[in-house]
């Protein structure tokens, strides 16, 4: 049996303690036995092992192989520039590995954030007297004394409670404080029992004495910390795609290398010449600049999103957000403002908006005096601290109004469900009462109406109950206000009251949430509310923001008895919302959606949201109202706490996937042009048109900035009117491969080889003639081949801006980085072709003007042919749309 479910006397006996707490010596012994009251880290991989993992994944292994072969080739045949290529590839591996490790290291700060939520000191009874004790030194059996504003340091069983209300939002997600007392409770969940105080919550009002029965990782808070640590963070769709792409490209490169090695052998090449050739084939087909370019492109996307108040913590989350198909959203603090406000008032027989209230001075007096708030200083300003409902009542009052001295009070408790205060006023001693309508209305004999007191008959009571039902149907928290003039010697102070009105409060939705929900629906994204709040409150909010017309609310109790198969079927319901859910249940819902093939985003701000945030495909935390735990467990933090920001971020995320395809098309096109010279070298026994060092200059030099420019393209018009990308849609699909390898790549290869032969034949070369590596004619010919690829890539960057729309349909102005990229590319080309250092490093020589004039028609021809292909694709798409009847 759990300690919190036992009778208090049995709990004393079990813990060998009592209402006066422990002796100091006994507490010290127990600290050694039970350990410190802190959240411990579950042992995982060592830092060295995690760092090693970043250098041994598949793509890294392919690059290690390429670097190793390059060093071997340099050892076998020095002076060919292979060593420089090897060093550059090793540099790429190190940069990517260190960057990935740093991202993982930052994620580990989630545990430290959890620990920071616990207070450092608390008041405990030791040796029969109260003393300040470090929270880390609390042990089971300790008795703690808490007052309003204190954080609860461990899981405790109440011994004494006086008007205790607890803010449990961080643990359960409920927006309203919960009453706690020493009464017995039959609930199996400690977080829902009224005689339990949980670590991580705080006292809104009252005083309490409680016995600690669980500390550290044994608390409910510790269970959430454990869930957050052991929850496996799934690979993002982008990470899976890059891994798949790496395998495909790597295996293809090695296969080609092996095939052409044997072709070379059949053609009579020596073993070592063949090996160097095979290395060149592999290097030409492995896009060494792919991972750095992807990383930098994602980093640029994060900067754009940060300007729109979405802070990205993990780079892969950028693209994942664009493929989201379901958003599981918390309610309190995410869809709502996490602050109570008055939505409706029943006064003088009418239901009114707060702005319509007039002449309600008696109502205002009750709201002004009947509370347990206190003024505290925070960030240099005085604010009200206490129950958010009472704060809302005070903040809604018109300016002015006298505050009368309080002479007595009858505090709130869970049995009476009301509180009263007694004040000295110019009209005599007044009692002001506030509480649940079902406990206040039976005490009333009169009501205010038309500025006077009227008898409260059966008809009037029915009208009041009808108004109460209307307000609760809207999801409002309804309280009744009443008063009376106290005689000098009243027998029953809370009797013969005058009913003043009903006040309906709500945690209002954030501005723009309804529009954001509508935008998600238009984009084919489903939004599911998952909250710890009451189902009626959740349902009313769902209707108000357009999330569901007829909400089907499933509570945590119902969810607990559902099998996994039943849950999967239930998730097909269109207007489904979840209420009264715990941290592990939120995570279960996310995992069930993932099993259905959905890409799931989770939003939240509390400690109870952290496990779900971590196991989701994309976790989104609130930056202002969110706890540190939620922020550290999330992939994206909304700096303005605005749900609508998610829609903007999704648009950017969708653009990222499209942009990855654009620069992948751009990069692979010149890979084909790098491969063709090697094939021609073997098949036709000509001088090698492109050296390995020149391939390196293309992959890691001239093409980097233009590729980044494509990664910075703005979202296409109408991108948010398309459904989410299917989970099985590949970054590298057959359409892209055919466009690159059978069209653009072949055109670019033809232009490069034509330029190479133009220079050779123009210099008097003839078939079969052997040219030395340092022969000026050979250096000029390789420079021509290299330059032709660069020039045609300048044309290609415009063609890659959209797969089917004309390059002329897109304005260059929105993406100035393209202009900078072209300038950088051409600048590097001139340095390589026309400076002594560039000539020496890259094996080139200056070109005559007629060589450049020869290259231009190939670039223009490539452009015209691609424009023709796009026009044909558009025409076929329009014909298909007409046949199917789609717009």
UniProtKB/TrEMBL annotation:
<dbReference type="InterPro" id="IPR023298">
    <property type="entry name" value="ATPase_P-typ_TM_dom_sf"/>
</dbReference>
<keyword id="KW-0067">ATP-binding</keyword>
<keyword id="KW-0547">Nucleotide-binding</keyword>
<dbReference type="InterPro" id="IPR001757">
    <property type="entry name" value="P_typ_ATPase"/>
</dbReference>
<dbReference type="Pfam" id="PF00122">
    <property type="entry name" value="E1-E2_ATPase"/>
</dbReference>
<dbReference type="GO" id="GO:0015662">
    <property type="term" value="F:P-type ion transporter activity"/>
</dbReference>
<dbReference type="InterPro" id="IPR008250">
    <property type="entry name" value="ATPase_P-typ_transduc_dom_A_sf"/>
</dbReference>
<feature type="transmembrane region" description="Helical">
    <location>
        <begin position="275"/>
        <end position="299"/>
    </location>
</feature>
<dbReference type="InterPro" id="IPR050510">
    <property type="entry name" value="Cation_transp_ATPase_P-type"/>
</dbReference>
<protein>
    <submittedName>
        <fullName>Calcium-transporting ATPase 1</fullName>
    </submittedName>
</protein>
<keyword id="KW-1133">Transmembrane helix</keyword>
<dbReference type="InterPro" id="IPR023214">
    <property type="entry name" value="HAD_sf"/>
</dbReference>
<dbReference type="InterPro" id="IPR044492">
    <property type="entry name" value="P_typ_ATPase_HD_dom"/>
</dbReference>
<keyword id="KW-0812">Transmembrane</keyword>
<feature type="transmembrane region" description="Helical">
    <location>
        <begin position="85"/>
        <end position="102"/>
    </location>
</feature>
<dbReference type="InterPro" id="IPR018303">
    <property type="entry name" value="ATPase_P-typ_P_site"/>
</dbReference>
<keyword id="KW-1278">Translocase</keyword>
<feature type="domain" description="Cation-transporting P-type ATPase N-terminal">
    <location>
        <begin position="2"/>
        <end position="75"/>
    </location>
</feature>
<comment type="similarity">
    <text>Belongs to the cation transport ATPase (P-type) (TC 3.A.3) family. Type IIA subfamily.</text>
</comment>
<dbReference type="Pfam" id="PF13246">
    <property type="entry name" value="Cation_ATPase"/>
</dbReference>
<dbReference type="Pfam" id="PF00689">
    <property type="entry name" value="Cation_ATPase_C"/>
</dbReference>
<dbReference type="GO" id="GO:0005524">
    <property type="term" value="F:ATP binding"/>
</dbReference>
<dbReference type="InterPro" id="IPR006068">
    <property type="entry name" value="ATPase_P-typ_cation-transptr_C"/>
</dbReference>
<dbReference type="GO" id="GO:0005886">
    <property type="term" value="C:plasma membrane"/>
</dbReference>
<dbReference type="InterPro" id="IPR004014">
    <property type="entry name" value="ATPase_P-typ_cation-transptr_N"/>
</dbReference>
<dbReference type="Pfam" id="PF08282">
    <property type="entry name" value="Hydrolase_3"/>
</dbReference>
<keyword id="KW-0472">Membrane</keyword>
<feature type="transmembrane region" description="Helical">
    <location>
        <begin position="777"/>
        <end position="797"/>
    </location>
</feature>
<feature type="transmembrane region" description="Helical">
    <location>
        <begin position="840"/>
        <end position="865"/>
    </location>
</feature>
<dbReference type="Pfam" id="PF00690">
    <property type="entry name" value="Cation_ATPase_N"/>
</dbReference>
<dbReference type="InterPro" id="IPR023299">
    <property type="entry name" value="ATPase_P-typ_cyto_dom_N"/>
</dbReference>
<feature type="transmembrane region" description="Helical">
    <location>
        <begin position="248"/>
        <end position="269"/>
    </location>
</feature>
<feature type="transmembrane region" description="Helical">
    <location>
        <begin position="817"/>
        <end position="834"/>
    </location>
</feature>
<keyword id="KW-1003">Cell membrane</keyword>
<feature type="transmembrane region" description="Helical">
    <location>
        <begin position="55"/>
        <end position="73"/>
    </location>
</feature>
<feature type="transmembrane region" description="Helical">
    <location>
        <begin position="731"/>
        <end position="757"/>
    </location>
</feature>
<dbReference type="InterPro" id="IPR036412">
    <property type="entry name" value="HAD-like_sf"/>
</dbReference>
<dbReference type="InterPro" id="IPR059000">
    <property type="entry name" value="ATPase_P-type_domA"/>
</dbReference>
<dbReference type="GO" id="GO:0016887">
    <property type="term" value="F:ATP hydrolysis activity"/>
</dbReference>
